[in-house]
Specification:
It is a single chain. Helix content is about 40%, strand content about 15%. The protein is an alpha+beta fold. Helix 5 crosses helix 7. The termini are far apart. The N terminus is likely disordered.
Length: about 220
Amino acid sequence: MAYQAGGQRSQPRPVPESLEAQAYLQDYAALLDALAFPSVVFDHRWDVVLSNAAFASLFQDIGPHPTAMPGDNFLRFVLFHPDAGRVLGEHESSWALPMLAHFAAAVERHGQDHGLQSIRRDIAQDPIMDAAYRQGLPHWIRAVGEDAVEHDGAVRPVLHPDPRWGRTDCRVIRETPKALENMGYTRMTLVLREPRPTAAPSRLRTRPGTPHLRIV
């Protein structure tokens, strides 16, 4: 059973044991592929379970990375892939810091989870990102308020490689049916808006193999 559009992952995630759950995911994958907007289903570690062709199209120009491809783990992509800012506009404030805040909440709920611990170790290995996580993040949340952290309903900039979309905004919709929720999964859809003319995006720190965060 294919769990992501655009190719196979190097280490496939285990499928649910229930045949009924497997059949549900197969049908849900067909539903996702019928959507025109990028949509992805992930677990509490942000490991991608399902994604559609529109999601693959959004990230089609992203270069290879051993641990941070968007079709494998969306959190790792946002935090660690040097090309993330090429697609996710205003990368630090609109995407990376909110994702760090959700990661911190997940660590509180699932502190012994090996996958989350691995992400935390990788954050700790980068002094700038570790400082942003431990020191900058609480300050940022106090400054912008809890609403800025929430994904659902947020309007965030994206830079689509398809010139028909180009530089635009998306509304982040988190809508998870009960069956997916019972499996521990969450669905996120990026509802793209009409392209908007803006000034050229600011240059981000993009040294190969390094994240883009600075201390906030």
